[in-house]
Design goal:
The chain has 124 residues and is an alpha+beta fold. The protein contains three helices and seven strands; from the N terminus they run H-E-E-E-E-H-E-E-E-H.
């Protein structure tokens, strides 16, 4: 008989253990999960600024005006978790993201998803 010191990948309890570890890391870093959705973490700063981290399975989106603070969070996460930085968000959860920084505009589009749904019901 062997006693495991951590959850093994593939076991049914592994995702729960991973989330518990991630949640405790976020608390240590000062982010708190929202009551409405436990995969949305928020940190408010004194100057009225904020940081939002959205988590969906193994995808993550971090939102903040100050990119240095985002880089700091990513660096800290990289020390605790195996992760890959894909740079500025272009797509998440099937939504296409387009950003025009000069005009301060942001577009979210689910055109591909809508087209797929329409095709599945022969409405294209």
């Amino acid at each position: 008989m062997c006693r495991l010191k951590k959850s093994l990948y593939g076991l049914k309890q592994a995702p729960r253990q991973w989330y518990k570890k991630f949640d405790s890391f976020m608390l240590e870093y000062g982010l708190h999960k929202t009551q409405v959705d436990h995969c949305v973490f928020v940190k408010m700063y004194d100057e009225g600024d904020f940081l939002i981290l959205l988590l969906y399975v193994d995808d993550m989106l971090i939102v903040r005006q100050d990119t240095r603070k985002i880089a700091s969070l990513k660096k800290a996460q990289g020390k605790s978790f195996a992760m890959k930085d894909l740079g500025p968000a272009k797509q998440i959860l099937g939504m296409h993201i387009v950003r025009d920084r000069t005009k301060k505009l942001l577009w979210l589009s689910q055109e591909k998803y809508v087209t797929k749904i329409l095709e599945s019901f022969n409405m294209s």
